[in-house]
Design the sequence.
């Protein structure tokens, strides 16, 4: 069978960018609507979403590895294996999703206490977390199916589904928060219901898209098949991605817990900052995801030089764009932040923190571009090894020391996060370069460098 045609970086990037930008814009509209309820409601949504992101990372044990392998198998022309991996990933993630949903329905109060949610916010957090958390099985299904489809090279169709889901979510938010169109005025309860309903409707479109993603429509009976050989391949790549992602998300959850212990205003500020910072790195993250898909296809097709340089193109272009986006935020900082809240303490603090993004965003791009590239060639374990110590010693440990004992507050948190980004990104860059000199890409560059010779079918450094 002929190898699958490698998609271009632009054809992959622009639908992911539009999807994420729409999510950002609609997420910002979501935050603005919730802010009309109260700053407390914004704080609850902010810390709850960080928690849900930590939960979703559990699903990447399957989806992370399966997505990369789908791209690699298609690049190598092994379409049957790609189909089996996609189907298997959906089956496994839905089982995990059901377990997680049940746990969150009955364990909301425990999780809120562990996150140090202030007592006056626990009632709101129980309402929001139990409903949205109860729908995690649907979230797991949507994630696994969209990941599989994107890694076939079709990033456009998931974009359309995401657009529809988010537009519906905003419309339902408007109805439930303000009591429009004859709907009841349910406040934060309505926001939670809106989230679950919009994700459930999106599921039916994702299912149809997934069934036709691999040629012949996927039959229901195929979901019961588990292929151990392929599962081992998925796990080999997927478990480091899952551990790394879980570690990062849980470290952010701990940091949010620190901020929560400072009070409602710092927590609300950090939540608003998350929305604004999303604008800065949305394109960079889209580019990193597209580069991962493209590099995995190229790696599967053994186009190693193209795969190697793709990472640098993503990094260079990504840093330029995230800095430009941060500059735009700074130019219009007063108008943007004032649209979220009238609290002068929050506005002044957020403006100060925006300046620190000039250092934060390039570090994030370095991590995103090189980390995703390493995972695309199956080197996810190295990314995990580099990242875990920095996340907990620097991002959490240094942030705590600066923010709490040294009383630097949110400034200390940001200094810790910035330092962590560069301490994780720099080793990934060095590892990528090492793959050219000694590891995976050495054969592709041996003639150009003139420093290797072939011995028994192996490339041996002179």
Sequence:
């Amino acid at each position: 069978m002929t190898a699958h045609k490698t998609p271009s970086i632009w054809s992959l990037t622009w639908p992911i960018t539009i999807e994420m930008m729409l999510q950002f814009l609609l997420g910002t509209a979501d935050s603005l609507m919730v802010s009309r309820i109260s700053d407390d409601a914004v704080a609850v949504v902010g810390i709850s979403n960080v928690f849900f992101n930590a939960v979703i990372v559990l699903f990447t044990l399957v989806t992370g590895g399966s997505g990369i392998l789908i791209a690699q198998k298609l690049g190598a022309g092994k379409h049957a294996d790609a189909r089996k991996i996609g189907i298997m990933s959906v089956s496994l993630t839905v089982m995990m999703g059901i377990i997680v949903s049940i746990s969150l329905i009955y364990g909301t109060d425990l999780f809120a206490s562990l996150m140090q949610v202030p007592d006056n916010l626990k009632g709101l957090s129980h309402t929001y977390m139990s409903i949205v958390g109860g729908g995690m099985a649907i979230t797991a299904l949507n994630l696994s199916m969209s990941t599989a489809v994107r890694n076939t090279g079709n990033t456009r169709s998931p974009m359309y589904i995401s657009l529809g889901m988010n537009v519906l979510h905003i419309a339902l938010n408007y109805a439930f928060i303000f009591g429009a169109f004859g709907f009841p005025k349910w406040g934060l309860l309505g926001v939670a219901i809106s989230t679950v309903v919009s994700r459930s409707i999106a599921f039916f479109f994702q299912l149809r898209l997934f069934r036709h993603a691999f040629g012949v429509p996927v039959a229901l009976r195929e979901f019961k098949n588990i292929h151990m050989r392929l599962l081992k391949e998925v796990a080999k790549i997927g478990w480091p991605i899952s551990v790394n992602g879980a570690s990062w998300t849980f470290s952010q959850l701990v940091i949010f817990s620190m901020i929560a212990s400072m009070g409602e205003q710092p927590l609300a500020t950090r939540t608003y900052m998350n929305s604004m910072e999303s604008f800065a790195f949305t394109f960079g993250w889209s580019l990193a995801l597209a580069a991962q898909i493209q590099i995995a296809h190229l790696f599967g097709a053994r186009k190693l030089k193209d795969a190697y340089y793709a990472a640098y193109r993503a990094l260079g272009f990504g840093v330029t764009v995230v800095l430009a986006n941060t500059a735009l935020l700074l130019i219009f900082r007063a108008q943007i932040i004032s649209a979220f809240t009238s609290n002068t303490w929050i506005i002044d603090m957020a403006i100060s923190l925006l300046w620190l993004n000039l250092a934060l965003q390039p570090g994030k791009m370095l991590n995103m571009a090189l980390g995703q590239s390493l995972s695309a060639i199956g080197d996810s374990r190295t990314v995990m090894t580099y990242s875990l110590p920095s996340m907990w010693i620097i991002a959490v440990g240094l942030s705590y020391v600066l923010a709490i004992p040294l009383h630097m507050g949110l400034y200390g948190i940001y200094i810790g996060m910035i330092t962590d980004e560069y301490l994780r990104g720099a080793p990934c860059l060095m590892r990528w370069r090492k793959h050219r000199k000694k590891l995976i890409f050495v054969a592709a560059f041996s003639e150009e460098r003139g420093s290797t010779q072939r011995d028994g079918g192996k490339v041996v450094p002179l």
About this structure: Strands lie at 452-455, 458-461.
